[in-house]
Amino acid sequence: MATALEGLSLAKYIKASPALSRLIRPVANAYARAAGHRQMGLRYDDLVMEERESVQKALGRLDSREAYDRAFRLKQAIHLSVLHRELPKEQWLKPEEDTRYLTPLIEEVQKEAEERAAWDTVKVDKKGGH
Q: Which ranges does the record mark as transmembrane (predicted)?
C-alpha cells in the first residue's frame, strides 16, 4: 500500500526512454552535487527517513557489514556537520559508489505488505453445503 509520504517516482519511465534520460541526467547530477550528501560521505539511501515502518523493517534486513557502514557514515556526517566542514575532496563519495543498498529492501518490504493486505481481504465463498 503506497502512502502519500512515499511520493511518486517517474524513474522507471525516464530510464526506459533514452531521450528523456539524456534530458534529465544533467539535472539529476546537478541536484546530487547541490544536495551535498556525497561531500559528507553519505550515500543517497542514507538520507531516507527512518520513521516509516517499511524503512525500519528494511534496516533490520541489512547485513551486519552494511549496517555498520551506514552507522559509520551517519556518525561521520553528523560530526562534520557540527564542525561545519566537508570531507577532503579526495574522500567525497563518487557517483558510481552512490549505489542504492536500502531502496531494494524497502521495495521488497512494501511488496510483502501489499501481498499481505491482499490476502487479508480475500473473500472465501463456501461451496456445497451444510
A: none
